Structures are given as C-alpha cells and as structure tokens.
Amino acid sequence: MIEIKDLHKSYKMGSNTLHVLKGINFNVKEGELVAIMGSSGSGKSTLLNILGMLDVADSGEYRLDGIHIKNLNETKAANYRNKFLGFIFQSFNLINYKTALENVALPLYYQRVGRKERQEKALKYLEHVGLKEWSHHLPSELSGGQKQRVAIARAMVAEPKVLLADELTGALDSTTSYEVMGLIQKINDQGNTILVVTHEDDIAHMCKRIVYLRDGVIVEDKEIEQVRASEYVQ
Amino acid sequence: MFSRDTWREIFTTIRKNKLRTFLSGFTVALGILIFITLYGMGNGLINTFDEAFGSDATNVFYIFPGRTSMPYKGYKSNRTIEFDNSDLKDIKETFPMFVENISPRIFRSADVVYGEETNNYTTIGVDWGQQFPEETIMMKGRYINQRDVEERTRNAVIGRLVEIDLFGSRNSMGKYIDIGGSVFKVVGVFQDDGGDNEERQIYIPYTTRQLIEKNTDKIGQIVVQFKPELGYVGAMAFERNLTRFLKEKKFIGPEDQNGFFVRNVAEQLKQNQDFAGVLQLIVTIVAFGTIIAGIIGISNIMVYVVKERTKEIGIRKAIGATPLNVISSILLESVFITTVSGFSGMLFGVGLLNWIGNRLKDDYFITSPYISIGVAVFATIILILFGGIAGYIPARRAARIKPIVALRDE
Questions:
Q1: How many CB pairs under 8 A join A and B?
Q2: Is 0.80 topped by the overall pTM?
C-alpha cells in the first residue's frame, strides 16, 4: 500500500538547515496497523505529513497504492488526499461552526456526493463511532473523546485506503485514549490500513507493528509479537 | 461551482458567521449609500441652477439703456441713451442671420380696474415675438399677435394671478379692463414658471403703449432672441458685434461700459453651469472616494476573513478541498454579500433621495436630488467587482498555503 525509498526532508531555520528525515525506507502492506514512534523531533510527524501529502519530501520515492507521488500540483494532491487518505489529528481539527454530522459529511462534499447520500453516510459513520445521538451538536458541545470520534468518523467516511493518525490520543485522558484506540483496532480489523504516530508506548502496543524513529532514521521496525518477545526477554 | 450544494455550503457559512457577514455587508451598503446620496445631492444643486434659468429661454440678450460715462464725438458724458423703433429695425436688418426674434419691453406700472376690483400691476408693451424668449405659456386665448402690433389694438394678455385677483372664479376672456385709464379687452391668460411676480403682469402691444404715450417711438428695453444653432461661441461673437453696432449708432465710446448694458443669458447660464459642473465634479470625486473607501473596507474585511479562516482552509484542504474549491467558496461568499448589500444600499440610497425631494431646497439649494439608474447600477457593480477582487486576492493566497502550514495556524 505504501512504499518509501530513501526519503529525505530538510527545513531551513534561518541560516541553518535542519535535516529532519535522513533516508527513510519503509513499506506498509494493506490492512496493517502501524505505530510510528519516536521522541519529540525524531521526524515522525514530518514523515506522516509527507505520507499524507500535506508536505513534500526533498528527495526519495513515495508510492501510494502503486501511484508515484511526486511533483503533484495542489489540485491533484487534494484529489489524492480525498480519495486515498483519511486524517485524524491530535487537536481534532473540526470546523467549529459545523455540527458533528456536517463535519463528517465534508469530505464527501468535495467528492461531489449528493447531499442526501452524504448525510446518510455521515450518520452511518457517526453511529459506527457511537455518536449518532450527537450528530446535530457543535464541536464545542462535545467532550475531547467525542470530538476525536467525530474526527475518526470524518476520516473514514470517504472510505480511504489509508488512515493517518497524528498523536490521536495526545489530547485525551487515558481511559478515553484506550477507547479511541479500541475503535481504531476495530476499524483495522475491517481491513483498513492505519498509521498511528505516537510517543506513548501503551498506545503503540495496541498496534500490529511498531516503527521507531530517531534523529530522522528508522532505528527499529518490528511486528508487535517481536516487540513483546524482546520485552519479555528483557 | 454554482451548484445548489455550493450555495448551501456558502449560506451555511454566512448564517453561522453573522457578525463577519454583517460587517462586510454594512461596509459595502454604506459605501453605496453615501455615494448615491452625495451624487444625487450634486444633481440636486444642478437642478436648482437649471430651475433658476429654466423659466426663460437661454438664447436671449436683454439690452438695457443707460447713461454714457465718457464724452465721444462731440457728445458729452452722462448722456441718457434711449432706444427707439428704428433700433429694432436696424438690428433685425443688420443681423438677419443671427436674430430669431426681437421685441421691445416697455414697463409701466398701472392701476387696473375690473368692476369693483382694482389692483396695481406691471404692464409690459411687447411685440408678438416676446412670447418665445419669455417662454410664456398660454392657458386661455392667445398672445399678442402681429395684427395687434400693426393696428395698435387695445388687446391685453393677463397673467394667471391677475385673472384670479380681478375676476375670481369668473372667466376673463373677452372682458374689458381699465389699464391706467385706457380700456383693453382680455384676449388671453398666461402662466409663467418664473413665479408669482411674472404671473401678475399684463402684456399689451408695444405700439399701443407708444400711442397712449403721445405716439412716441421710444422703447424701454430690447430683447433679442438669437438662433440657438449659434451655440455659446456664436452667441458671444454676436454679442460683441451687436454691442459695437449699437455703440456706433448711438455715438457711445468704444470703451464706455455704461451707455447700455447687455445681459447675455447664455453667458450667465454657461458660467452657472460651469460652476455647477465643477461642483458636480467635486461631489463625484468625493462620491467615488467613498466607493474607493468601501473597496478598501471590504478588502480589509476579506483579508481578515481569510486570515481568520486559515486553519479552516487547512482542514478543508487536508480532507480534499482543491485550491479551486477554496477560492470559489470565499469568492462566491464575498460576491454574494457585496451584491446583496450593494443593491440594498443602492435601493436605500435611491429611496432616501426620493424622500429628500424638495425638503432641502430652501435651506441648502438642493432641488429634487436624483441619480440615474445607470450610474447607480454602475457604481454598485464596480463595488461588487472590486469586492470580488478584494476577496479573490487573499483567497488565492490562502489556496496556495500548504495545508500543513494552514493547519498550524491558530
């Protein structure tokens, strides 16, 4: 589903250049639930942004579902984002003047899906995340966990090939975090490919594979069973 | 781009951001309202000027006799100049290409009696052609005609208010009135847009007035109506030639400004129109200034609106909005608000001008302010157009922002 070869990314910081990603090689198969872990500044969010076409790499190769993602103009990138990717952000990023239902239906609006169908589908996904009764509430009327569930429903409504979650439990308490991750696991069980960026061990341990980044390079890439086994040995 | 869905999305945004919508719309509506009011007031001033000169024809010279102020060719200074019948004939014969009508005016005050009613009125001895420069409107009967002048008839044409004063509700036509001891038959009643004073006058043939005054050939003033096709430049040239001709005929020094006086209505009108034109230009510049202020206002608001929505734009882009989606939603919202509020301001402004009507006429010399619908619509469209551009520039900038940068905006 995702193939990355020798990906590099730098940022100009005044007269200095900060080399954030230093040759990342990495593949994700369809249906995987992958955690990308690392400390602050390791490059995990940058990697996720590049995978989500929110940002572009300086060099390297990125294929999404076999499509070579390179030199895309903004329109094409937007279309690919809409078609292939669903985003879940730490700060939810819901539009505050739209109801939960309207927020969830928004990606379908950009796919030119008719209004009735949009609302039916949005309601179905809200039900899926247990928020059908809250569909006409504004984000300000929802708790953090509820907001994140709305964001998950919004990410899923367009039935993307890959869900990208950036610190999705970062703004939630531990109980809600486990609930949300439980939901992510449920979605993954239905065959969806999901990448979760996190710095929390327990959240990462709810994924099927963990990729560790340090200073812009992958230092470890293990299936969860291998991780648990090595932890057991230690 | 113009689907029902797009509009629904825009209306949702407008409905849920009422203050922002109100501020944008109010700026535009106020800009148009001020423009229309100022422009209309300018037109109202011009109306006042036009009205002041509108009661008489504008292609007219009034020549008033005076006294010389310089000796000339053996004649002493301070000599009284009088016009007589030969002057009328000479002017007509010397300037046949220029003169449309020529008439004397012999003003006399007289007690006028009908039955028990007596009043003092101004009588004016005129030729038949005087009707045209005065733009006298006949309500009943006829004006003084050529036969009246040639045969020195005792026919009189009375003003509307003279008829009301002397005859009340009765018909004056064919009745006889006593004017300063001479009996005249009323052959016509006139009205005049020049006001009440002009409608309290009585016209009689100038030849009859001369007959009453011991068969003199003296006339008071000369009214020359020149051909309108001469235009302003031709009229000025004619005035110079006519002045030179009369000075030579009456032995008045070329430099003497007091022998007689020429009041050139065309020149006065031109000066006043020039003044009104400058005034209108100033008002128009100020009015367009308000439009520009409106454009700047809406531009500022649009920049603020887009800035405020940067994060939202980032979210929308992250979930699939293309740059065109972003630009069109901001642009359509901006154009919709400016159109609705622009035309509301326009209608309110036009309504305000109609309401003002003649309320400011007496104190501020503004008569029936108005704006042509073409100018009003043009100004409104200009504001809408620039409102659109004002929305487009920040929208385009916003559409170019990387989603990740927009998402970080707080």
A1: 70
A2: no
